[in-house]
Amino acid sequence: MKIKAAVLNEMSLPAPYVSSKPLKIEEIDLEGPGPGEVLIRVVAAGLCHSDLSVINGDRPRPLPMALGHEASAVVEEVGPFVDDLRPGDPVVSVFVPSCGHCGPCSEGRPALCEPGAAHNGLGDLLTGARRLSRDGKPVNHHLGVSCFAEYAVVSRRSLVPIDKEAPLSIAALMGCAVLTGAGAVFNGGDVRPGGSVAVVGLGGVGLAALLGAVAAGAETIVAVDRLDSKLDAASALGATLVFRADDPDVVAKVKEATRGGVESALEFAGAAKALELAYSITRRGGVTVSAGLPHPDATFALHPVSLVAEERTLKGSYLGSGVPSRDIPRFLALNRRGKLPVEKLLTHRMPLEAINEGFDRLADGTAIRQIVEF
């Protein structure tokens, strides 16, 4: 079938993207689903820094590539051996397909699926297939999803079925922003009721983490960013203290306000300096979590003695360190009860044709979370 999709043919084109147009809206070919695959009709797709990092060249991927990895959709057709989904079922995409039988998957850590990571790097599906093409030549899949398109064929392992009553525009945010941000709070951040937590980097993922910290019952919630607009948004969403990241005295100020630092500091800026800041404002015995994705060449230096003498923990969190088939329905249930109001993160809705302008807003920080609606 012919579909309309946003295709990246060249990385590192200059901003503003509304002028350079790195994403071309093209008509390309989509094959039907093979064994273990599903054809979905995309309803909404979120714009994320993981897409932007491919556009700007920070995280190179094989080109040409149809971008997009965070979506809500409706099942149109299932391939052979898919017996638990039917046409009409609503689903959310997950950007790491889990094979279910590799070492990490068997340990209950599907975010670290080894075949999933390998196939994402190759630009194909977990099945090894490429179902996208243009003029008879393959077009690569982005993280097994490629949802900046009217339709997509994905592995069944890239989908989580959701309740039919869930609003699909909100459900789209669950597959990356909420899963990564709130997931880091609930699954790896050691955030406790009455405790203290800091969120460094207040994009869509960071603010989703802040909402998660509120839902988890943290008493002191510190928000840190370079933009006053993001700090204002954090205050409106439940932050109790806000600080400018570019304040040269920010570490001292946070420590003074929190009596020595926070119990948990979570970094979502995707920058080594932000991780250094998060580590510096973590108290003795505390946990620092990095869930941002910095440039692959970035490095981070610390004094190892602090890990021992202060019994500190420093760890990463990918895909919220969770189990998407468990966590996404839970987060949607919290949202339905008003405990996780992620709809407040949604600042822009747009047609596919406006996607380059959307990535300009993402790059300059004037948007929180944006979706393309089909």
What does this protein structure show overall?
With 374 residues, the protein is of the alpha/beta class. It has 2 domains: 2-175 and 341-373, Medium-chain alcohol dehydrogenases, catalytic domain (Quinone Oxidoreductase, Chain A, domain 1); 181-318, 3-Layer(aba) Sandwich (Rossmann fold), CATH 3.40.50.720. 29% of the residues lie in helices and 27% in strands. The protein is built from 13 helices and 18 strands. The chain has helices at 17-20, 49-55, 103-106, 114-122, 168-171, 177-188, 204-215, 228-237, 250-257, 272-280, 304-309, 324-336, 355-364, and strands spanning 2-8, 23-30, 37-47, 65-66, 70-78, 90-93, 132-134, 137-141, 151-155, 159-161, 196-200, 220-225, 241-244, 262-267, 282-290, 313-316, 346-350, 369-373. Strands 3, 5, 6, 9, 10, 17 and 18 form a 7-stranded mixed β-sheet that branches. The two termini are 17 Å apart. The mean pLDDT is 97.
Which structural traits does this protein have?
single chain, 374 residues, alpha/beta, Quinone Oxidoreductase, Chain A, domain 1, Rossmann fold, 2 domains, six-stranded parallel beta sheet
What does the secondary structure layout of this molecule look like, with pairings?
Blueprint: E1 2-8, H1 17-20, E2 23-30, E3 37-47, H2 49-55, E4 65-66, E5 70-78, E6 90-93, H3 103-106, H4 114-122, E7 132-134, E8 137-141, E9 151-155, E10 159-161, H5 168-171, H6 177-188, E11 196-200, H7 204-215, E12 220-225, H8 228-237, E13 241-244, H9 250-257, E14 262-267, H10 272-280, E15 282-290, H11 304-309, E16 313-316, H12 324-336, E17 346-350, H13 355-364, E18 369-373
Parallel strand pairs: 4-8, 11-12, 11-14, 12-13, 14-15, 15-16, 17-18
Antiparallel strand pairs: 1-2, 1-4, 2-7, 3-5, 3-9, 3-18, 5-6, 6-10, 7-8
Helix pairs in contact: 6-7, 6-12
